Give the backbone structure.
Amino acid sequence: MTDLLRLEAVTAGYGYGAAAIENVALSLPRGSSLAVLGRNGVGKTSLLATIMGLTQMASGKITFDGGEIGGIDTYERARLGLGYVPQEREIFPSLTVEENLSVARVDRGKWNIESVFELFPRLAERRQNFGNHLSGGEQQMLAVGRALVSNPALLILDEPFEGLAPVIVDQLVEALKRIRKESDMTFILVEHHVDLALSLTVQALILDRGQVVWNGKSNDLAGNKSVLSSLVGIS
Amino acid sequence: MAVLKVTPSKDTPKRDIAASFGSHRLGLSDALVWALAIFAYFFLGAYHQLGTQVIIMIILALSLDLAIGYSGIESLGHAVFFGIGAYAAALFALNVLSEPLTGLVVGGLAAGAFGFVTGLLVLRVRGLTQVILTIAIGAVVLQVATTWKSVTGGDDGLAGYQVAPILGRYSFDLYGHTAYLYSLCVLAFVFALARILVNSPFGYVLRGIRDNDQRMRMLGVPVAARLLLIYSISAAIAGVAGAISAQVTGLVATDSLSFLLSGNVLIMLLIGGMGRLTGAFIGGIIFVIFSDRAAAIDPFNWLFMLGGLLILAVRFTPQGVGPWIDRMGGYLLDRRRKP
């Protein structure tokens, strides 16, 4: 299987000062999925931000779908097929649900506004509501839906379940499983719910102080309590 | 597990013009200001010229609303586009062709082109730096217009050009009847264009950029290119307003490029409400008529009254008068509906 995303010895950060991630290497085959784990502040979000071109890369190489993307702008990366759901959701408050989706839509795959509404019926009911009139769970559904309508080859999710009620988390987990099953979409998931993240992904890596300290199969990690305990803090 | 059934797209990528121009978010204030603008013609009496000035200012405020209200581009130098449109239309009438509609296009194109060029610089920065840049560009152009007397007439202004009858039939009369209707027609066209624009997917993108430009980049939107486009369109519309001004008054003075005019048009938007198009109507009407009446009552201290109006407007209607009218209208309708 060919790699959709490949990072080789990537060091990046925010302006001057210490690097947020250091010498990171990873390869993600097309159709696969990756959980990025680690304690707070170890560089998980910075890794995603680097893939999206939101940090300053000091060294290394990022390849997406066979092409080098390290030097191109964020919007061009998105156009190439990188879909990003940020931790803060960042729904546009002055746009309705439907308008939030329409600004992101790219007609190059099976996902469109109606199929997102099928995936999240709650959004369909709220289609004329403004972004700032949605609950946290609805905003997260919209954030995921907005990434989907761009029909990305790689979907990047940064803590999508954070701060949500268990019933909403269940709905989102179900939706992610359906997305994988129906779209064969590759995705990267940063998540504090370790069990959940490992159950949704094939590969996993653990970051510590900006460096990859463990890399392997999610199943293997799920059964390795000592690694989880020492590197992620799960007892 | 249920299999997701994906149906063919029934969504809105191909929003047609009717959908964009439809009743999307029309409020009571929309209907009110249009009714006022149309019927005012019959009741203005000797005030058609003042009415024309109101309409010109509304067009200018509309153009600024597209930049500030919808796109988050902060500008205190928008008069520069108004002035360039005015000078371009006047010079065109003087040296090339006196036909007014062509002159409008020339004024709009000249200002739009200048907006494009300056936008490359202005849109690289945000916030206070952007505001200062727009002021600086306005100051430079004003200085050029003042010193380049052979072309602009300098402080004396540019005059002596003739404007032919509109469509070869309707001459500009002394009382300003033709000018009023002419500018009202242009306003209707500009308003329709702006309404289509802001209710189109492009308009959604602009509002998204205003809300969070970084997020818009992550969705694959070339933010810089979109902002440059709307800035150029906004400049072109301001240029059209300037061209009308030049055509109906027969004079272009350097104050058409001034910082004062830029500030005034921003005040109009603050009074009327930003990001709603009709705010330009409400603000333009209130500002020009209030200024005219205040100057008539006290020619020396009228700016004091204008300042008072702005303070009251900001204190009691911080989002502008437009949303307040909508709320009042909604309240009255609710009361009528109750048994």
Observations:
- Chain A has one domain: 3-224.
